[in-house]
Amino acid sequence: MTTKQIAEAAVREAISKFGFDISRSSKKEVPCRIYIIYDKYFRRFKIGRTRDLTTRVNAIANSSGSEMELVGSFEGWPSNEITLHAALKEFRLKGEWYRYDSRVLDMFKEWECGVLTGAGLGDWS
After folding, report:
1. Region 8-12: what's the mean pLDDT?
2. Number of domain units in the chain
């Protein structure tokens, strides 16, 4: 299954589960940065959202006691993060943490670059 097919399936699942397309922003949503960081000690990824990227990455590093590396980020909406989590559920360890796998990074990078704009995932540019 391609990355695009996985993402499309996640959107379909979210629509059936929540009754609406969570990949589309609502009028109540506030823009945010969707980020992926790499935990060098535990070899895992964290995907989340924030309005202050530097402060958030530092807070995670300080609270975990591990060295973190910001791998990528893009402007988006909270619903975009939810959809991304749904698309990556097979890699989830716990909460927003995902096992180290090149497919996690590949999918994030595709979304970051806007490759999936036409997949019903909203405007990522």
Report:
1. 64
2. 1
